[in-house]
């Protein structure tokens, strides 16, 4: 069962490890990215950072559905770097109905959408496509903080 799909440019880090996994009872983390699985240094860092009690898969986005289907009893958190990756993920996992935007890095051409989410035009366009698919986007850094009410209209 998918407990959380999270957009976070940092992927696996303290907030994810200590807050979200414990709050949601996650026992399987999937880092879904088309570049990170081919980067041995990044993969090693992610494997060191993961909670001891959780499984970790670092795979291309296209392989996520087969993992979720194969291990149906696991409780998943799926991490992607940005809105475009989230959009691609929803094409392979159509059951996704909501996505947490936890952190998208500030860039020269980006605008703020909450305390830690900065979207450029391409990321905003991908976010609009997610919303058009009926997917709820919520901005929240950690489970103990309030959900930020964000208007992605501009």
From TrEMBL:
The keyword Kinase applies. It comes from the Bacteria. It is found in: Cytoplasm. Residues 1-154 form the PTS EIIB type-4 domain. InterPro entries: PTS_IIB_sorbose-sp, PTS_IIB_sorbose-sp_sf. Keywords: Cytoplasm, Kinase, Phosphotransferase system, Sugar transport, Transferase, Transport. This is PTS sugar transporter subunit IIB.
């Amino acid at each position: 069962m998918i407990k959380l799909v999270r957009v976070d440019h940092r992927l696996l880090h303290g907030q994810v490890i200590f807050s979200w996994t414990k709050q949601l009872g996650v026992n399987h983390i999937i880092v879904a990215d088309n570049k990170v699985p081919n980067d041995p240094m990044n993969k090693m860092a992610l494997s060191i950072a993961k909670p001891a009690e959780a499984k970790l898969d670092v795979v291309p986005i296209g392989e996520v559905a087969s993992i979720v289907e194969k291990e149906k009893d696991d409780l998943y958190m799926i991490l992607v770097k940005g809105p475009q990756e989230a959009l691609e993920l929803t094409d392979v996992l159509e059951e996704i109905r909501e996505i947490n935007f936890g952190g998208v890095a500030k860039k020269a051409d980006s605008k703020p959408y909450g305390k830690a989410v900065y979207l450029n035009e391409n990321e905003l366009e991908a976010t609009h496509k997610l919303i058009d698919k009926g997917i709820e986007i919520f901005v929240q850094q950690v489970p103990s903080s309030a959900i930020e009410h964000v208007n992605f209209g501009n």
